[in-house]
Structures are given as C-alpha cells and as structure tokens.
Amino acid sequence: MAKLCCMSERYFMKFFKSVMGKTFIHYLNYVRLSEAEKLLLSSELTITEAALQSGFNDPSYFVLERQLTRYGIDNDMVRRFRTSRQMKNSP
C-alpha cells in the first residue's frame, strides 16, 4: 500500500494512523471482518470459506480477530495480558 502512495512504509503507517485514528492493519482487519460478516449473513458459506474470501489466510486468526473486535480488545491489551501472565508463571 505504501508503494501505491509513493511513500516509505514507515511514513505511510504514521500518516495513515494520524488521518484515520487507527493503524492500517487494524483498519484492514475491520474491513475484512465486515466483509466476512456480510458473507456469513447473506450466504451459506462456512466460517472458513467466508474468512478466506474476505482476505484472511488463516481461519483461526479470523475467529480470534472477530472475538477481539466484538469485545473491544485491542492488540496492546493482548500483549499486556500475555506479558503479565508470563511474569506470573516465571520462577
């Protein structure tokens, strides 16, 4: 995407976030989730088929993203949870 806009990847990411208020990856996942939801509601596709047709390469990642989005959990929260869990489990 950055190349299409004639920008470096780093600049594109910063610019996109400043304009849209969210990262490009977060926005892309939102668009993919919306498309998958439409497919699931309007067709007989399985979750795997809808995920793949919406641009997700891994159906399990689609399910995870869908759950995280539904409950308002972002990647930073997941990272903090994993870090705190690892710290509790280390000797």
Automatic annotation (TrEMBL):
Which UniProt keyword terms apply here?
DNA-binding, Transcription, Transcription regulation
Q: Which residues form a coiled coil?
A: none
Q: Enumerate the Pfam families for this protein.
A: HTH_18
Cross-referenced Gene3D superfamilies? Homeodomain-like
Membrane-spanning intervals of the chain: none
All residue ranges annotated as the HTH araC/xylS-type domain in the record? 1-63
Q: Which domain of life is it from?
A: Bacteria
Note whether DNA damage occurs among the keywords. Answer: no
InterPro entries the record matches: Homeodomain-like_sf, HTH_AraC
Q: What is the protein named?
A: Helix-turn-helix transcriptional regulator
- Highest classification ranks of the organism: Bacteria, Bacillati, Bacillota, Bacilli, Bacillales
